[in-house]
Amino acid sequence: MTAPTQHPPRGLGGTGPHGAAAPDDGHRRYRDHRLDAEIVSIVVGGCCVSSDPNVIITTTLGSCIATCLFDPVAGVGGMNHFLLPDGGSDTLSASARYGSAAMEQLINRMLSITGRRDRLRAKVFGGAGVTGTRNSIGQRNIDFAMEYLATEGIPTISWDVGGTQARSIRFYPATGRSQRRLVGGDAIRDITRSESSFMERLRKTRIDGDIELF
Predict the structure, then answer these.
(1) Catalytic residue among 47, 48, 64, 68
(2) Which residues of the chain are modeled with pLDDT < 70?
(3) What domains lie within the chain, and their CATH numbers?
(4) What is the model's pLDDT at position 84?
(5) Residue 31 gets which letter from DSSP?
(6) DSSP letters of 41-108?
(7) pTM score of the predicted model
(8) Is 47 an active-site residue?
C-alpha cells in the first residue's frame, strides 16, 4: 500500500478508555500475523471506533465514501463507510438523511469516548466513478462528506477521492495514520456488486421514520 501525502500527528495520550474496537455491526475481524495486528474490516453501512494501537480498520471503496475521524490527543479514531442513494425515486432530502445517519453515528461514537469535538480531525476517501456505477453518485458522496464536515466544524486534513479506480484503505485509529492502494480487476466487480446490493436495500427502506441501516 502507498500512503496519502498527509499524515496527522501520532497520538499523544496512550490508548484512551476503550482499548478494543467497539462491537459494531457491518464488519468482520481477523488476526493478520504478517502485520501483527487485529484487522477490523468494514463494509458499506459499517462503522468502527477504537483506541487500540494493535487494531487496523480496513475497507474497500468504489463510489462509496469512508470518513476517518481521529483525536490525536486521546489516541482514538474511527471509520465509517457509506453510500448515498442514487436519483431514482429518492429525494435529495432523503439522500442527505442516509449520509447524516452515517456521519452522526461516527461522530457520536467518537464523542462518547473523547468528549472533545474540537480535537476531531478527518480524512476522506472514495467517491470513484467505477465501472458499473453512475459517476454522479461518487461525486455526490464526495460533496456530501466534505460539506458535512465543514458544517460540523471538523477540519478535513487530507483526502483521496474521485477518479475511476477503486481504493483499499487501511486506517490506524490510535494514531490517525492512513494508507490507500488503488485496486482493479475482479475486485472492482465485487465492489460494484456490493454497492448495487446496498443501493437496492436503500431503495426499499422507508424514509418516513428512523433509518436503521447500520
Answers:
(1) 64
(2) 1-26, 85-96, 131-135, 185-189, 193-214
(3) 27-204 (3.30.1330.200)
(4) 81
(5) E
(6) EE-TT-EEEE--TTEEEEEEESS-EEEEEEETTTTEEEEE-B----STT--HHHHHHHHHHHHHHHHH
(7) 0.76
(8) no
